[in-house]
User: Fold this.
Amino acid sequence: MGTIQIKKVERTVTTGKTGETRQKVQKTYGKIIYRGTLNLADMAEHIMKHGTVYTEDVVIGVITKMKNCIQEMLADGYKVKLDGIGTLYPKVTSKGVADAKDFSAQDDITRVGISFLADQSKKSLYKASATRNATSLSTQLYSELTGEDGLTNNPSTTGEGSGTTNPSNGTNGGNTGGSTGGNDGGGGNDTGGGFESGGD
Assistant:
């Protein structure tokens, strides 16, 4: 079982419905403290530790070939489903025009990106319930407002830092780029090629 470290983040939010008396209150939310980012070489090394008969260069070669092939298929308008992981698919943003006959894909499509839909099938290891069962949560106090960190003397559970050079050593990378409301990894966004969660 893995361990995801959670920091407590204090946010000032406005409560009450529009038209009613509204007030600002301080609430505490939880956000993930990311340990770092694993690249292709890191993943190949990790795969080898699980007893694969393939050497690191072979693993990297296969993943690289798959990455290039996926890009080609997405560019041709296909959705690519990786069973048990999720589906990658192209997505566009366009300008609205008043008359349908005036719409031009070349002129009115403003962005072409890639989105990801996590596999939520019954046996998927990536759906929310499976992820929750596969990890334990460790909480520490960190305030984005005051900068106070209750565990700064413990190098393995420090708060936000400048990043990590060894993702496996338990130190943590910098900011998690939160949104007000503070939950990481829940609903998705489509900006920047973004992520969506949900069913197939």
